[in-house]
Amino acid sequence: METKPKKTIWVEGPISADKIAKSIAAHQTKKDIGAHSIFLGQVRADTINGQTVAGIEYSAYTEMADEAIAEIREKAFSKFDLTCMHIYHSVGMVKSGEICLFVFTSSTHRKAAIDACDWIVESIKELTPIFGKEWFENEEYTWKVNK
Amino acid sequence: MSTHKIRLFGFLVDSLKNYHLEIPLQTDSDAVLNYLKQTYPQLEGLSYSLAINKKIVHQNHPLNASSELALLPPFAGG
Questions:
Q1: How many CB atoms lie within 10 A of CB A76?
Q2: Which one of A64, A130, A131 has the shortest CB-CB distance to B51?
Q3: Nearest 5°: phi and psi at B25?
Q4: Which of A18, A36, A125, A141 is least surrounded, with the fewest CB atoms within 10 Å of its CB?
Q5: Interface residues from chain B to A (CB-CB < 8 Å)
Q6: Chain A residue nearest residue B12, CA to CA
């Protein structure tokens, strides 16, 4: 049986504006789509105990994360009237100001695209085993905790 | 195989100074958590979950020698 190459959500380092632009352009041939919704997570230069975050080094339990993402994807398609969806997350170092999460949902009408995008982002944060080492400018670090 | 290998992630790698632990075979997840608590005082006060076969354990769960175990800090994706 022919199997499609397994899609991966993982991007080494930051997600480039070019990747996002190309992803948008790739949908121009799908003319049943009337609405896209995009969420971009950006690394914030938080100040923690007087020190500024220079970047976050992401790591993941990728085997479990891939299963979690597959479930999120399946549920998203059953909950919302989506035409397609794409998820990308960084692993490795992402400097403050750079993009670490890209969620892209498309539908015939806006509501499904917007609601699905929001639901997917919340689900990723809750269910996907991704960890972040927040590096400070002085090369010390702390571990990020989601709020 | 007379041990479980437990993969570690995030701050647990720092706390336990390793990427995995090897512990004697246990019958269920509660036994694993108790064993860890007694054997690794570094875990005291830390927030973590046990995953068996890539699922977080919310209640006691039986184990066998091939169960895939991981100890996970709170998630920080996005």
A1: 21
A2: A64
A3: -55, 135
A4: A18
A5: 7, 9-11, 14, 51, 54-55, 70, 72-78
A6: A143
Question: What's the rounded Cα separation, in Å, for the pair B75 and A144?
Answer: 9
Per-residue confidence (pLDDT) for residue A129, from 0 to 100: 98
Contact status, residue A85 vs residue A77, Cβ threshold 8 Å: yes
The count of other CB atoms within 10 Å of the CB of residue B68 is 15
C-alpha to C-alpha distance for A43 and A101, rounded to whole angstroms: 9
Nearest-angstrom CA–CA distance, A97 and A75: 31
Place of tokens 């979690």: A68
Amino acid letter, residue B54: K
pLDDT tens for A16-33 read 999 999 999 999 999 999
ipTM of the complex: 0.94
pTM of the model: 0.92
| Separation CA B44–CA B34 (nearest Å) | 12
